[in-house]
């Protein structure tokens, strides 16, 4: 069995040399043969380089990087041979020291330092890093006790502090443990042994050189061996056909790296996979670093996806999380869940900003509790009212009926939920989309956004650190976040200086702009794909046609649609509609999920635009209690505004408060948007708004509106919701 390669790292005076020796003793007691290696050192050439580096004349930082790695090439070759003999190697330092000392400590471009280190160590990477850490005063005391100093130990305290922080950053990036080494020698030795003991039965990070070959060269061409076919049989769904999928046997990061090689290697990708990536599951990050260096971070980031979850996000935060187009989102529904339950600490589900002083926080909590108390009372009374007045026979009041009546009550009570109400959001996105989300959140003024952005970065780095190592670099992600924040603040100042503070224009929806006022103008675009003419030539021909002929082409292009999933072609994407909308926040949060749109932006939330009382609430005689919630909300909002907390004041608004937002979408998207969101099982609030938008669209583009034959205006939403619930129960029964 091949040996393991364990590295002890840390700044000056943390005890690496002593602990490396003790770790070898621990391993011997476990019947594992191990040797200590030192960087730079351990081979004649490397030892001479060590002497030159630590005792030689002054030189540039770049020279240090190259000198360390020149020595490292020899050491890594020696380490690989020792590992092949079955022995373990315990290393006192590694390439990580160069990244930290010369990159973080001496200010070189860290990515360039990484690239040089990767080149020098491509033969062998460590199986495990352990970083030892002590407080600066302890490190200084130990160095002074030792008496002898060298080139780096003589550096000033600021340098050593920077090195210490650099180790913490790199340890987080590679998910390496950082151990407190300030205890006694025996105590620290036990901490290290606990970490190493976990790796004893794990397979080595490197495959032995003598492993059976998975590919072989025959007449200058690669061929897959039987061993390779056996490997592929587990990794892909088809080992010989032209189309195949990955089974999950290989990590998504490895697959992403292999796919990135497609542009530079002409072999079947399965050959590339076997030749360069098979057996490297424990070295994904190092492989990916090389691939990113060669092929660019943006394109490689698009090749792997990641599931992340944000718990306890306010409903203000959920919309910020779901802003990006190229991702998939799911969040807890306000239509089917009662938000009346308290947690184990006796708290309702709402977010409290952590930048409030104690007095403000206490008042905020009291107000939120009062609103949730009233919401809880109303939602249950509405449920009882709906059920007691429903005419469904007792024999038909099944699970589906209970679900439908509960949803009806939740719909009517939802306007009372504060925007501070928390929910869980699930996200699936590419590495690139997640990085963009993180940079945007970190640029926000809202404390919750910044906190979630930093937490997301911490967590995704545990899965794929290489994808996200640039997300907070001062010259990359940090600069992007600063750009966003500066631009937003400058625009805000311009608006304050140049525009009136308040609007008196509150229409529910305004069609602000339409591109291609004449919908028949897109007929040439409809013909383009099937023609051999230029677009200009087609336009000239169509201009000579009669109106009826153009309409006939238009209708033929739309085709016979049998359900709302039958979408016309992309010619319709040349028509755009821009809307300015005022509706309640609950409606907005449902419609904002449509991401294949343009210019979807919203203004700060405010109670200024008012609210509406649902008919069901009035019928149940609960209007006074309903309005009390809005009075409490307005008082809290005003108080936060007076304190200058304009962003945080939004948490005090309710989902029933109206807000202003805008959206632009093309005519093809309009088919999806209008037909889906007018379906009877949808929320009555957004169904009403969509029908208003559709009516206005039909005034300017009657042919397009008529083609949207599945826009629904008539069915009873209560009956349709019940039918949908029963169909869901039917499907569940079929699965049992």
Describe this structure in words.
With 736 residues, this protein is an alpha/beta fold. It folds into four domains: 5-197, Rossmann fold (3-Layer(aba) Sandwich); 215-303, no CATH class; 306-498, Gyrase A, domain 2 (2-Layer Sandwich); 509-611 and 655-731, Gyrase A, domain 2 (2-Layer Sandwich). The chain contains 30 helices and 14 strands. The strands form four sheets. The chain has a five-stranded parallel β-sheet, sandwiched between helices. It has a four-stranded antiparallel β-sheet with strand order 11-12-14-13. The protein has a three-stranded antiparallel β-sheet with strand order 8-10-9. The longest helix is centred in the middle third of the chain and has 31 residues, at 358-388. The chain is globular. The two termini are 48 Å apart. 38% of the residues are buried.
Low-confidence stretches: 206-212
The helix count comes to 30
Number of domains: 4
The CATH H-level homologous superfamily of the largest domain: P-loop containing nucleotide triphosphate hydrolases
> Major sheet: order of its strands?
2-3-1-4-5
Mean model confidence by pLDDT: 87
CATH topology type of the largest domain: Rossmann fold
* Residue share in helix: 40-55%
| Whole-angstrom Rg | 32 Å
Class derived from helix and strand content? alpha/beta
| Strand percent estimate | 5-15%
**Form type:** globular
Straight-line distance between termini: 48 Å
Highest CATH level, the class of the largest domain: Alpha Beta
- Give a quick account of the main beta sheet: strands, pairing sense, barrel closure: 5 strands, parallel
CATH architecture of the largest domain: 3-Layer(aba) Sandwich
Number of strands: 14
């Amino acid at each position: 069995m091949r040996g393991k390669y364990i590295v002890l790292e840390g700044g000056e005076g943390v005890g690496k040399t002593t602990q490396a020796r003790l770790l070898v003793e621990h391993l011997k007691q476990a019947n594992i043969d191990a040797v200590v290696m030192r960087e730079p050192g351990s081979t004649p050439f490397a030892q001479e380089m060590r002497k030159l580096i630590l005792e030689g004349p002054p030189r540039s930082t770049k020279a240090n990087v190259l000198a360390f790695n020149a020595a490292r090439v020899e050491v890594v070759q020696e380490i690989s041979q020792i590992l092949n003999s079955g022995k373990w190697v315990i290393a006192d330092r590694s390439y990580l020291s160069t990244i930290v000392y010369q990159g973080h400590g001496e200010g070189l471009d860290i990515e360039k330092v990484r690239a040089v280190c990767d080149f020098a160590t491509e033969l062998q990477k460590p199986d495990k890093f352990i970083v030892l850490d002590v407080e600066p005063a302890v490190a200084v005391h130990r160095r002074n006790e030792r008496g002898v100093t060298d080139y780096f130990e003589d550096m000033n305290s600021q340098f050593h502090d920077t090195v210490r922080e650099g180790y913490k950053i790199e340890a987080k990036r590679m998910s390496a443990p950082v151990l407190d080494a300030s205890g006694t020698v025996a105590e620290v030795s036990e901490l290290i042994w606990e970490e190493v003991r976990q790796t004893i039965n794990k397979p080595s990070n490197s495959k032995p050189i003598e492993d059976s070959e998975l590919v072989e060269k025959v007449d200058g061409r690669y061929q897959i061996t039987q061993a390779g076919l056996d490997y592929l049989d587990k990794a892909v769904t088809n080992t010989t056909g032209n189309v195949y999928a990955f089974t999950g046997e290989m990590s998504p990061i490895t697959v992403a790296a292999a796919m990135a090689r497609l542009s530079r290697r002409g072999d079947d990708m399965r050959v590339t996979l076997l030749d360069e990536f098979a057996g490297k599951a424990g070295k994904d990050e190092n492989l990916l670093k090389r691939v990113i260096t060669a092929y660019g971070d943006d394109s490689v980031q698009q090749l792997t996806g990641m599931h992340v979850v944000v718990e306890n996000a306010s409903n203000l935060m959920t919309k910020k999380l779901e802003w990006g187009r190229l991702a998939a989102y799911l969040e807890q529904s306000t239509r089917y869940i009662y938000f009346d339950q308290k947690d184990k600490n006796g708290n309702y589900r709402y977010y409290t900003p952590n930048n409030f002083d104690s007095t403000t926080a206490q008042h905020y909590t009291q107000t939120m509790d009062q609103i949730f108390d009233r919401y809880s009372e109303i939602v249950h009374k509405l449920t009882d009212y709906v059920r007691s007045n429903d005419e469904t026979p007792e024999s038909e009041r099944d699970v589906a009926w209970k679900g439908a009546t509960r949803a009806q009550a939740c719909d009517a009570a939802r306007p009372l939920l504060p925007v501070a109400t928390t929910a869980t959001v699930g996200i699936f996105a590419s590495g690139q989309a997640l990085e963009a989300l993180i940079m945007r959140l970190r640029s926000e003024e809202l404390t919750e956004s910044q906190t979630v952005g930093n937490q997301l970065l911490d967590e995704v780095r545990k899965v794929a650190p290489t994808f996200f190592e640039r997300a907070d670099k001062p010259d990359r992600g940090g600069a992007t976040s600063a750009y966003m924040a500066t631009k937003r603040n400058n625009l805000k100042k311009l608006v304050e200086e140049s525009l009136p503070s308040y609007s008196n224009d509150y229409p529910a929806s305004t069609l602000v702009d339409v591109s291609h006022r004449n919908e028949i103008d897109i007929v040439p675009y409809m013909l383009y794909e099937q023609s051999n003419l230029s677009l200009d030539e087609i336009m000239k021909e169509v201009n000579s046609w009669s109106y009826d002929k153009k309409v006939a082409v238009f209708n033929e292009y739309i085709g016979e649609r049998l359900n709302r999933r039958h979408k016309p072609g992309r010619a319709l994407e040349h028509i755009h509609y821009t809307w300015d909308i005022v509706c309640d926040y609950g409606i907005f949060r449902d419609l904002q999920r449509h991401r294949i749109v343009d210019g979807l932006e919203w203004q700060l939330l405010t109670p200024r635009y008012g609210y509406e009382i649902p008919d069901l609430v009035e019928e149940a005689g609960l209007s006074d209690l309903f309005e009390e919630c809005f009075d409490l909300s307005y008082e809290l909002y005003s108080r936060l505004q007076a304190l200058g907390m304009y962003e945080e004041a939004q948490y005090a608004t309710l989902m029933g408060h109206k807000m202003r937002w805008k959206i632009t979408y093309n005519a093809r998207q309009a088919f999806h948007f209008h037909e889906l969101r007018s379906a009877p099982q949808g929320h009555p609030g957004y169904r009403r708004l969509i029908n208003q938008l559709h009516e206005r669209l039909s005034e300017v583009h009657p042919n397009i509106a008529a083609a949207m034959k599945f826009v629904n205006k008539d069915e009873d939403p209560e009956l349709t919701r019940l039918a949908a619930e029963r169909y869901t129960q039917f499907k569940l029964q079929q699965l049992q």
